[in-house]
Amino acid sequence: MDLHHLHTYIRPQQLEDLTAWDPGWNWLAGGTWLFSQPQPHLRGLVDLHPLGWNELEISAEGLKLGATCTFQQLLQYPWPPHWPGIRALCEGMASLASFKVAHLATIGGNLCLALSVGVVAPVLIALEATYTLIDLQGSLRHIPAQDFQTGPQQTLLQPGEALRSIWIPAQRLRGPSTFQRLGITQTDPALVIVAGSRDPDSGNYRFGLNAALSPPQLVQMGSQPDPEHLSQLLAEQIHGWIADFRASALYRQRMSEVLIRRCLDILG
Amino acid sequence: MDPIPIRFQVNGQPYVQAVPPGITLLSLLRELGWVGVRRACESGDCGACTVLLEGDPIHSCLYPAARLQGQAITTIEGLAKNGEWDAMQARFLEGQGFQCGFCTPGMILSARQLCGEGIPSEAELRDQLRGNLCRCTGYQAILESIQGIPASFALAVRFPSGCRRHSTFPESELESVGRNVPKQDGPQIVSGQPAYTGDFAPAGLLHLRLLRSPHAHARIRRIDTSQAQALPGVVAVLTHRDVPRRAYSTAGHAEPVPDPLDRFVLDEKVRFVGDGVAAVVAESVAIAERACQLIQVEYEVLPHVLDPLEAMQPGSPVIHDEPEARPMNVRVSGTEDFASRNLAGYVCLQSGDPAQGFAEADLILENTYHLPAVQHAHLEPHVSTSWLEADGRLVVRSSTQVPFHCQRVLAEITGIPRERIRVIKGKIGGGFGNKQEILTEPLCALATLKTGRPVQWELTRSEEFTATNSRHAMQIRVKTGVKSDGSLVAQEITAYANAGAYGNHSQTVVFLAGYIPLGLYRCPHKRFEGFAVYTNSMPGGAFRGYGATQGTFAVECQMDEIAHKLGLDPIQLRLKNVIQPGDPLTLGYREQQDADWKDSHFNLIGSYGLKDCFEKIQTAFSTPLPPPQGSRRYGRGIAISMQGSGLSKIHVAGVKLSLLPSGRILMRSGAVDVGTGSDTTLRQIVAQVLGIPINQIDLIAADTQETPFDAGSYASATLYISGEASRRAALALRDKLIQAAALRLQTDPDQVCFAQGCFSAPQGSLTLPELAQSTPDPIEVELHHAADESSLTFAVAGVELAVDMETGQIELLKIAQAIDLGTAINPRICYGQVAGGTAMGIGYALSEELIRDEQGQILNAGFRYYRIPTAKEVPPIEVHLVQQADPYGPFGAKGVGEITTNCIAPAIANAVFQATGLRLRRLPLTPERVWQGIQSGIDPPQPVRASGTER
Fold this sequence. Notes:
By secondary structure, chain A is of the alpha+beta class. Chain A has helices at residues 71-76, 86-96, 99-102, 107-113, 120-126, 145-148, 170-173, 227-237, 249-267, and strands at 8-10, 25-28, 44-47, 56-58, 62-66, 130-134, 140-144, 149-151, 154-155, 162-169, 177-182, 192-198, 205-210, 217-221. In chain B, a hairpin with a 2-residue loop joins strand 26 (758-761) and strand 27.
């Protein structure tokens, strides 16, 4: 929708072009969420697109993704067959939006919005990813995926700081992964999201949970737990189940358990 | 604000210009005149604004125009090349993959991309098309168009069909009725031509935006508009002090209106969150929006009430205390006045003696059902454009189902004589009842009268969800007594409807909630009591099914429950009790004791194909039910329903037919095609009677200046009543033509044979153009018709589904619906009505609900959290058109617009029972509600013998 309050639109050719940052500004990645609802507090947009942060680099150690890689780019990439770990990421992106949004929506945009219904964050938590942040001076810092988001629509990003890239270690990419969601319908923003990954060597599991809670959280287990153990584990480790007009906290908690069990069945 | 210089191409045409930083590609394209790009949700959820950006389809409402750096954009207007349709446009024409057409450009552009490398599987198509919402078709005709249409629906006439100038016509085009004549607006729809109200912008157009109340109930103490007035570009600001204080109803009904006159264009009191406070008229939407935020309002917040049962209690806030309003003048025995009980309407119907009936019963069941407020979600929002003609006449073009009622209401509000007001219906992008409400026109017209300039007011999607109307939320208690053989002995319904802040349609909607389901079954003792109660929420209004949908859910769920308790087959139980030909519908007919029911009945049974409908549905589900798999349990359910065809005696339709000098026929009809295709079917009727091809008939429709009166498109009336008016007018014209031809041929009229557009007699022959050119006076006919009878249409639906017992999710596997519709004038169009109504029923059953917080604020005012079904959530729909000609409708046709929604939710709830053993009595059946039922292990209530009742 038209954002009538915007006064400024900047297209920096390089980061150094930006000498100052206004608190009413926001980075513009795909724009597919920003332009989907009123943004009365926003005065300016700084377009990341010209910076060309959409590199995709595969190495023996892992995968580096520039923050503005689009969903489409990742969904269509011919991934190495020995990387089943990428599957959860693709399933998650495919579940979120129609192919017409996938052309524009970016992986970094989805992370930085930090919506509880975000699909990328739980996958990257399960895949033990690390994020690289960059500020206007060009200094970098590295943050584990599970620490990046601090609350609903809140992250560690400081004003003017941007997500630059994502690193996923090859160890996780070599293991199986899966993405499970549950909503009121098959296509609405999820009520519960669980992304799971199994380490191909140690066999330990990492689960990224989102939608049922915020911020997204990591659940780890060394082996397949029995159902009571799983319930107990969640009760002990996870707090802040979301209750809103769409579903209760109890339902979200129980469905997270169900989806973790379904992930375990798939991950083996 | 610094405008951003951009350059780009649209359909090969280069543009260089500067745009505001926040404008979207959607708005830019529409401003440039590429109106095939549709504004429908503006949140990226519906896909109506899809365009190709460098060949890739995107939602243009999400794309900042400032980003354009020379890219090439293709819109629907750019697809056809050298007069040839694009392959996907041709497919949609061939398959008639559209109804109102508002979603079609986006659908075609998206499908085109998906089929770039061959046609994907149906499952893949349904998944990928979830970013394109359609509210009309149930997606079935869309998928069939993409995949290739089934042979049974091959079109009777193919596009392009061009205007033929033969003296006689191909035989194949002479039969119109009963054939799949393509919608005559198809080429316009698939090419995205300007047609809808918002597609036209008169020079000097101003835009209106409304400041709306943040409070559910408040008095406006003070409004300061000075800052808003001072904003450059603001032309006028209107508050309640600036508009006439005349009470009216937004309901578009014929006089005498059955609605309370309880609304003012703007009032000093606001009665729901979203009620109007002040309007800004400005040079642009952006300025109008900014100015709204500069209006200072001091409210005296009043206590509010959202629940209808609470609102009826003594001491509740009184919502309508204004002396000018005309309340409903209906008596409620033994109660105080209407205002203090917040009653917007009250209905009490009785036949027989229910107490006696219950005393005879072997089993009595009493259950309460809860139906949510849901929204129509037509993709085209409400929109009006008003202007003054040079001679001072007021013209309003609007997306309205009721142009003539709108003209009357505008005359009442403005004090301008009716004949000085012209209302033109634009092409409608879906209405479903919400455009049987006069919402945007009055303020728009008043803004034009104040400024002297053209004004347009288009609602946002959020306003559609919060400030128009909903289906009435209802709480319905049904108590039924049966003998152990299943025969009904007493049935009693009590309904409490949430009328919301205004009483439009409430009395009549509540009436149908009891009248329809109680009328459906033979039962000696019946009683209905219905209350429509004012609350501080968005008003309930007209919505396809109109109360029958709510009442049908309650009774059809309970009938299923009775069958299970008595160990009877649910179909047999219904067959045992359902009304039969010859049965009078006495309940609900007024002054029953004083008159012969045949003279003043409301509905009657004309044709009766209900038993065939049952057979079709039984056959559709004749395979064994799948056994449980993992956590999945399977179930099937059915439900039946009926609905009238129009309103007898009071729904008037006028048609004028003239022979043009070219020999073509000009049809002027006040009837409103709300997107269904009635502009095509009405012409089919005329073509059939005259024995000429449909393409020989030009149509001017629904314009108060250019066409005769028609009550409008509601109550499943268009085909049944306007269609009969068309048939009668065509018969009369045919006689006149033959007489004129006889005169010219110097013979007796009975010597003249009129066929294939040619008059022949032993003396010679004459073609239509020859007759037209040789007749000094125009040959024309104008007549008005009101039906004496309103025939009942019946429907049976069956559903097969799976319930995941771990999560409560319901997956629909198959739906079949059989409609007893008399004659299908155009089977393809009827099929579209059934598939579309079925999908709407799916949304009602599973996901749709307007959710309010305690302050009365609607929390899901957009397509992202208010979920109408996508292609992925709709299973294959099996449609059966059961055709037995009705004695009253044109060519035996009955109404089909509304009934198609009624059966779906109860059939689903009954299937959930079979799968899980749970009786769920609150819609929608969200996964959590189903899961809660499973968790709490609700046992189905045990049957109680005549000694007592259960709750």
